[in-house]
Amino acid sequence: MRNDAAAVGELLDPVGRSDFDGPLLDVRDLTTHFQTPRGIVRAVDGVSFTLEAGRTLGIVGESGSGKTVLSRSILGLSPRRQLVDPQGQILFEGRDLRPMDEHELREVRGRQISMIFQDPMTALNPVMKVGRQIMESLRVHFDMSKADARERAIDLLGQVGIPSPGVRVDEYPHQLSGGMRQRVMIAIALSCEPKLLIADEPTTALDVTVQAQILDLLGRLQSERNMAVVLISHDLEVVGGRADDIAVMYAGRIVEMGPAAELFKATRMPYTDALLRSVPNIEDPPHTRLLAIGGRPPDLVSPPPGCRFNPRCPRAGFRCGVQEPPLAPDDDNVHHIYRCWYPVGGPTGPEAEAAEARPRRVEH
Amino acid sequence: MAGSGTAPLRDGREDIVLRVEHLVVEFPTKGGRVQAVSDVSFDVAKGETLGLVGESGCGKSTTGRAVMQLPRPRSGRVALEGTELTSLSPEELREMRPKMQLIFQDPISSLNPRRVVVDIVAEPLAIWGIEENRRFRVNHLLETVGLDTDTAARRPHQLSGGQCQRVSIARALVMDPQVLICDEPVSALDVSVQAQILNLLEDMKARYGLTMVFISHDLSVVKNISDRVAVMYLGKLCEIAPSEALYRRPAHPYTNALLASVPHPDASRVRGKSVPLTGELPSALDPPSGCRFRTRCPRAEARCADEEPTMRELQPGQFVACHFPVTPGRPLVTTPTGALGAPA
Ligand SMILES: Nc1ncnc2c1ncn2[C@@H]1O[C@H](COP(=O)(O)OP(=O)(O)OP(=O)(O)O)[C@@H](O)[C@H]1O
Ligand SMILES: Nc1ncnc2c1ncn2[C@@H]1O[C@H](COP(=O)(O)OP(=O)(O)O)[C@@H](O)[C@H]1O
Ligand code: SF4
Ligand code: SF4
Ligand SMILES: [Mg+2]
Ligand SMILES: [Mg+2]
Questions:
Q1: β pairing state of A39-51 and A196-200
Q2: C-beta atoms of B276 and A212 within 8 A
Q3: How many CA atoms lie within 13 A of A34 on its CB side?
Q4: Dihedral over Cα of B301, B303, B305, B311: its sign
Q5: Residue A148: Cβ within 10 Å count
Q6: What's the pTM value of the predicted model, to 2 decimals?
Q7: Smallest CA separation from ligand 3 atom 6, residue
Q8: Ligand 2 centre and the CA of A106: distance in Å?
Q9: Which pLDDT score is estimated for A297?
């Protein structure tokens, strides 16, 4: 429906950053739909955002909201046979990745953009020593001798905080703990010094203690290398303290996006608000009642008409069921955009609609 | 933590439903004996929820299962309403089973895939030959946990994770248990569904007067649902205290480190307070001598390697197994820690 993706991109460019060559990554109206026996799954449905070098964009949303499909689409890793009419542009340093063939994409992947997956065990080759896996990646992208690559692999393992890297380099993935494996994945992802790293739930399978270590590590490596990061999680709190900007996804769309602090302080979209309130806050006393969101996310084969959140939204009015709200900037902050007719902080749908329906005047 | 001792047991109280003393569980493996649970003691009073937290592999699930005698622990005692379970014959133990129920993390695989929801919930009644009001009890419970008649006619693979967990809860409650042991019941669920299930567990607890042991690695979730919290590390308890006290003034260095790792939208606030843990969990095949936490503890001294700390009461109700507990207002770190990720 909307085609002002470029405008949204401009809105998100914080003032003062006047890069002549534009943002590192500029995703415009990206659409990834899959053909399935049940019908067309609209996994990603018109997503736009920009990301500058050295910055972090956090993407959050419940499972099935399209986070993984979005990140894989950027790398051209979606199952091609299933794709239905892919739309939009993925401008990486101004070059559109979307129309590229597998050969061209391979050049970009790894060398320019790397990805870390949620489950390191499935992403690592179980029968190859971890050192060899890093070396392969190095030798594909750089013209390196075997000895140099091995030395570099050991160096990388050390950089990601693996103790005795000279020993670990000759171990197999199953000999490492989950946290160690994720460190190896990070080492592989960083081996080619990418400008952009996409981390899809990099710590969801890990303990809080290991999670903190891995996220600290990513943050440190990122600032050392001025790398841009897309950090995906279902947990708003995980990305909250780590990302510059946050995008909240619901049913294949971005429903709210803005600077991280702003999003927490002045949440406008009821779905974001509900996500924040449904997790127990460690500061609250025990047995504090949680505000659960009723129902479940919609089926992406037939999303509801109007606002996609309306069947579960406590603020929904009549209009929400018929007309989809545009992704528009907040009155107080143009960098903060959201989709909602009756945002948090103003009257709810029924309140606003009752006021409209009432004849003028009325004060009692 | 590496701490043992029975100081936290409240033997003066009349309302103790579950009492666990010197619990030890070991698994023989090719590499040697895995010391999964090593001398753990705690009790739970009627209507109380005890949270059990700790890193993956520290022995939380093993503790929960050993309490249920699944399998029987290597040593130690488990008393349910005064009945000592470890010395019961298999037949006597079977009679006791309905009184304690377990809810698992993975909702789908813990349910029989070939049966429909009503039958899954009714199954324990069928096994025990309880005919009386069977239909009524099942329907009433399904309604209480929020499942409609349409859902009741489906099979597990046709349900969402949250619905499966509701089925597990209904099934666990159908025999009217005294004690409910929940092993990571919401860890596999989305946050919005997690809130629904946590609220449901609170409702069920109030309605049926349940006593709960709630196992989780999520400290915020545990604080929300628990009256008291026990922190576990490498098969031992470090600290056990009323939830508020434990989160407000954690005394054990490991509790401090765990709390420092909790993600917070305002990262600077948490970071300033304490040092997140570095290094990895040592092997349970060959745990460190003395205090098991000493290889990662920022406060460790020579004594920690020689002498195992035992549980002692630091504040009323707050028990800690540490030679040098953290006192409020004092910095946690006494020695500089190693580089990020390197073992201390
Ligand atoms: N059947 C078994 N055979 C051998 N070792 C086992 C067995 N079951 C558990 N262990 C070991 O016992 C220790 C405790 O395991 P347990 O499953 O209780 O941990 P946990 O705290 O529940 O972890 P998680 O948070 O990952 O569920 C671990 O070292 C584990 O590898
Ligand atoms: N290859 C595919 N074919 C059909 N549907 C798919 C495929 N991959 C993902 N989907 C669907 O797309 C939606 C978004 O999935 P995903 O991006 O994995 O969600 P998230 O990562 O946010 O949990 C889901 O409904 C999922 O079932
Ligand atoms: S547009 Fe309506 S239904 Fe959608 S989030 Fe806003 S108030 Fe809720
Ligand atoms: S100070 Fe000593 S006893 Fe206390 S936790 Fe650290 S190592 Fe263990
Ligand atoms: Mg995903
Ligand atoms: Mg477990």
A1: unpaired
A2: yes
A3: 18
A4: negative
A5: 14
A6: 0.85
A7: A340
A8: 23
A9: 85
Given a contact cutoff of 8 angstroms between Cβ atoms, the answer to whether A253 and A223 are in contact is no
Is residue B335's pLDDT more than 80?
no
A243 interaction partners in chain B (CB closer than 8 Å): none
CB atoms within 10 A of CB A110: 18
Token pair recorded at residue B110: 């813990």
Residue A5 has pLDDT above 80, yes or no: no
Q: How far apart are CA A216 and CA B312, in angstroms?
A: 35
Determine contact, residues A151/A159, Cβ cutoff 8 Å. Answer: no
Q: Do A231 and A198 contact (CB within 8 A), yes or no?
A: no
- Sequence-separated (6 or more) residues with CB below 8 Å from residue B125: B134, B137, B138, B174, B175
In a mutational test of the B interface, the residue from A206, A208, A220, A245 whose CB has the highest number of chain B CBs within 10 Å is: A208
CA-based torsion, A277, A279, A280, A282: positive or negative: negative
Q: Compute CA distances B126 → A242, B122, B130, B133, B136, whole Å.
A: 52, 6, 6, 12, 14
User: Residue A358: its pLDDT value, please?
Assistant: 79
Q: How confident is the model over B120-157, as pLDDT tens digits?
A: 999 999 988 888 888 898 998 998 888 888 889 999 98
Give the architecture-level CATH label for domain B16-250. 3-Layer(aba) Sandwich (3.40)
* Cβ neighbours around B14 below 10 Å, total: 6
- Expressed in angstroms, the distance from the first to the final Cα of chain B is 16
The number of the ligand 3 atom at minimal distance from the alpha carbon of A270 is 5
Determine contact, residues A324/A45, Cβ cutoff 8 Å: no
Instruction: Please report which confidence band the pLDDT of residue B194 belongs to, taking 50, 70 and 90 as the band edges.
Output: confident
Task: Kindly tell me the burial class for residue A27, based on how many C-beta atoms sit within 10 Å of its own C-beta (0-12, 13-18, 19 or more).
Answer: buried
Distance A284 CA to ligand 6 centre (A): 26
Name the least confident of A79-88, A306-315, B265-274.
Answer: B265-274
Pocket lined around ligand 2, Cβ cut-off 6 Å:
A 34, 36, 41, 43, 61, 63-69, 79, 82, 300
Confidence of residue B215 (pLDDT cuts 50, 70, 90): very high
Give residues with Cβ within 8 angstroms of B314, minimum separation 6.
B251, B320, B325
Query: Within its chain, how far is the Cα of A222 from the centroid?
Result: 16
For the cut 90, the answer to whether the pLDDT of residue A161 exceeds it is: no
Both tokens assigned to B174: 């159908």
Q: What is the mean pLDDT of residues A119-142?
A: 86
b/e sequence A74-88, b meaning 16+ C-beta within 10 Å: bbbebeeeeeeebeb
Give the binding-site residues of ligand 1, using a 6 Å CB cut-off.
B 27, 29, 34, 36, 54, 56-62, 217, 284
The beta strands (E) that lie in B147-256 are given as: 179-183, 211-215, 228-233, 236-242
Q: What is the mean pLDDT of residues B254-275?
A: 71
Number of other residues whose CB lies within 10 A of the CB of residue A357: 8
Using left for φ > 0, alpha for ψ between -120 and 50, and beta otherwise, residue B150 falls in: alpha
What pLDDT, on the 0 to 100 scale, is given for residue A241? 85
Instruction: Tell me how far apart the alpha carbons of residues B117 and B120 are, in angstroms, rounded to a whole number.
Output: 5
B30: which residues sit within 8 A by CB, 6+ positions away?
none
Give A5 to chain B, closest Cα distance, Å: 28
Percent of chain A predicted with pLDDT > 70: 93
Residues A169, A153: contact at Cβ < 8 Å? Answer: yes
Secondary structure (3-state) at B50? strand
Q: Quote the ligand 5 centre to B245 CA distance (angstroms).
A: 37
pLDDT digits (tens, 9 = 90+) for A258-313: 999 999 999 999 999 999 989 898 999 999 999 888 888 888 999 999 999 999 99
In chain A, how many H helices and how many E strands?
13, 12
